[in-house]
Amino acid sequence: MEDGLIRSISTGLSQRGVRDHNERLLLSLIQRHGGMPASDLAKRAGLSPPTVSSILRRLEAEGLVQRGDPVRGKVGKPSTPMRLNPDGAYSFGLKIGRRSAELVLVDLNGVMRDERHTSYARPIPDQIFGFVKDSISEISAKLTDGQAGRICGLGVGAAFEIWNWPEKSATGQTEFIEWQPLNLSHELQVLTGLPVSLLNDATAACQAEHSFGRGKEFQDYAYFFIGAYIGGGIVLDNAVYEGRQGNAGALGSLRSIGPNGESMQLVEMASIRQLEQRLQEVDLDPRQLWLDPDSWLALSRYVDPWLGQTAQELSKAALSVCSVIDFEAILIDGAFPDAIRTKLVERVRRYVSTQDTRGLIPPRIEAGSIGHKARAIGAATRPIDSQFML
């Protein structure tokens, strides 16, 4: 068994079903560990060398894998690593956020090939659908027929119950109520003609980190992504765990204690929304946080107190989740510059070191590595994973 990738298979599978499973297994191993020769793949997968060679020939003919440069060892013939062919498949990824939407095109290696971005005061469905339609049309026009034919779908990362985001209008009604009756997957599938996969935006960010970032270093970890609202994800046995209804890792809903001793959620204490409110109170435009990364350093007078509060809340949340599962690490990323992420992680480490950890195994506190595009990139991995990976 390798990295939890080899799953038990029900008896009675057809030969095609077994072949599909083994193909997905090899593609998943290459994705996780990088290019490797057939002999190493056979050992990791627990399959015979002839079986692996046959599968690799088939995958190579289909354009999903390609041969790397031969590597010569001290003895014997040089070995040829097999790696994913980046042009083997493409997928669109859409992130729908409170302040902005992003649409990206990624290849089979998770490399972003193109992107489009729009910002707004509030997300309006028709405007976002127009953005998606125009962006896909513009990006697709730049592709060859062969590349366009390998687009396998559209993944969408959006907050769970968008209409229930914790922000109220002057009338007391939820500001985003127009999203509630929408069947988002259906609307986008009709609009684009592509298969659509919908997942929680923070889970999508976690998937990007796990597939293409530092998440590869750990087997079990909790992941926090700080955007306009904080969210999270969890990884168990080297796989992102989504739960029975796709809402596992809803770490923004963890309980916290407000400034007056009231019970609050983490999302109300450790989100960029709190920093926006501080800027609004002193008549500064909070949109600069999203449009100008350098503004985070220029606004240090307001950013530093926010960092302190957010770090304290994350340290408590990190230990709370570790009381349920003994995660080896807590990864932290967000929609802010790398320098801000580094400061935040350092502060969380210091706070965790001062907490009462009796009965717990303190986790490593580490920075994520994907950054503010993690949600869109992670969303784009869903169609690829569902068609080619375990």
Task: Give a structural overview.
With 390 residues, the chain is α/β, with parallel strands linked by helices. It is built from 13 helices and 14 strands. It has helices spanning 15-33, 38-45, 49-61, 125-141, 145-148, 184-192, 201-212, 272-281, 288-291, 295-298, 300-322, 338-354, 374-388; strands at 65-67, 82-84, 90-96, 100-107, 112-119, 151-158, 196-200, 221-226, 230-236, 239-241, 255-257, 263-265, 329-334, 364-367. A five-stranded mixed sheet has the order 5-4-3-6-7. Strands 10-9-8-13-14 form a five-stranded mixed sheet, sandwiched between helices. A hairpin with a 5-residue loop joins β11 and β12. α1 (15-33) crosses α3 and α11 packs across α12. The chain is globular.
Describe this protein with a few key phrases.
single chain; 390 residues; alpha/beta; five-stranded mixed β-sheet; 13 helices; 40% helix; 19% strand; disordered N terminus
